[in-house]
């Protein structure tokens, strides 16, 4: 049941580095390549996990970042670590369009523009895998409200302020659960397929206004959420059923483990001018996990 946790997840994750010192993530927000010098970013789901690592990476590269989340204590602490001159925190529940609009307007009011919008907030929903006939549509609606509708709200309001300036990069955190079916419970999987579809739907229209829209689809990462499930034994059993540890099934490269910093660097590329002609793309960061599947066939008779 818990290939579900192969893909997660914003809102939870490894410890991120902070303001000018080498943090636990292994990189520093001191001098960097400055690929985002002068740029302003909003990150939803920024207080932990992929969002936190990406905020640190953006700041290290010269951006001013508005951190948006519902985890107030974590968000404020991260803003303090990254430095008042580089980051600020504001509460934002992405299921409320007015709050998404407000965080975009806050970035513009505070910094004069918005260059980058990372729509990263997301949840996995119920970890149950009932038969389709027993699917809980209330859980489905709750997951879609954050993972898909919340992303659409972010795209809508980022485009609202970017299009008049004819510049901007909108990035949406999707998942390999939006590339292959049956990896996660249906609500999460459907929500991530929808995010990839959203990107492809709007990219052509926004390109006419000079705004790029792309997605990132990570494989699973050892976040606090996954650690909690590992402690419960659920993910361990699922991993054993695939013939290896959860780490071993996360990559085609032996000994290589996907980390939040890898997704942060993918976001940095899509946010920077290095990707100036990349639009409507789903950047899959999975070590080749989704490119093929070995056939489930019996061994030939001797």
UniProtKB/TrEMBL annotation:
Keyword entries, A-Z: Oxidoreductase
GO molecular function, one term: oxidoreductase activity
One Pfam family it belongs to: adh_short_C2
Entry's family note: Belongs to the short-chain dehydrogenases/reductases (SDR) family.
Name used for this protein in its record: Xanthoxin dehydrogenase
Organism of this sequence: Triticum turgidum subsp. durum (Durum wheat)
């Amino acid at each position: 049941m818990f290939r579900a946790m192969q893909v997660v997840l914003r809102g939870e994750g490894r410890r991120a580095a902070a303001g000018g010192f080498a943090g636990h993530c292994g990189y520093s927000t001191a001098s960097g390549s400055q690929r985002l010098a002068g740029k302003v970013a909003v990150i939803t789901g920024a207080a932990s996990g992929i969002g936190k690592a990406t905020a640190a990476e953006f700041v290290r590269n010269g951006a001013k970042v508005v951190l948006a989340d519902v985890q107030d204590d974590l968000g404020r602490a991260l803003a303090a670590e990254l430095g008042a001159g580089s980051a600020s925190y504001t509460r934002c529940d992405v299921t409320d369009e007015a709050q998404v609009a407000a965080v975009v307007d806050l970035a513009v009011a505070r910094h004069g523009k918005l260059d980058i919008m990372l729509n990263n907030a997301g949840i996995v929903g119920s970890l149950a895998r009932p038969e389709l006939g027993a699917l809980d549509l209330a859980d489905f609606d709750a997951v879609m409200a954050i993972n898909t509708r919340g992303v659409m709200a972010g795209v809508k309001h980022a485009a609202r302020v970017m299009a008049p300036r004819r510049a901007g990069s909108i990035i949406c955190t999707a998942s390999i659960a939006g590339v292959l079916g049956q990896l996660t419970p249906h609500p999460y999987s459907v929500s991530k397929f929808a995010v990839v579809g959203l990107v492809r739907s709007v990219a052509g229209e926004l390109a006419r206004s000079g705004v790029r829209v792309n997605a990132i689809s990570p494989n699973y990462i050892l976040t606090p959420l996954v650690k909690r499930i590992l402690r419960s034994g659920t993910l361990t059993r699922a991993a054993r059923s695939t013939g290896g540890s959860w780490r071993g099934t996360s990559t085609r490269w032996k000994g290589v483990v996907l980390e939040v910093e890898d997704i942060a660097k993918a976001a940095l590329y899509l946010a920077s001018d290095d990707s100036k002609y990349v639009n409507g793309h789903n950047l899959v960061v999975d070590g080749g996990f989704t490119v093929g599947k070995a056939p489930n066939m019996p061994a030939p008779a001797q």
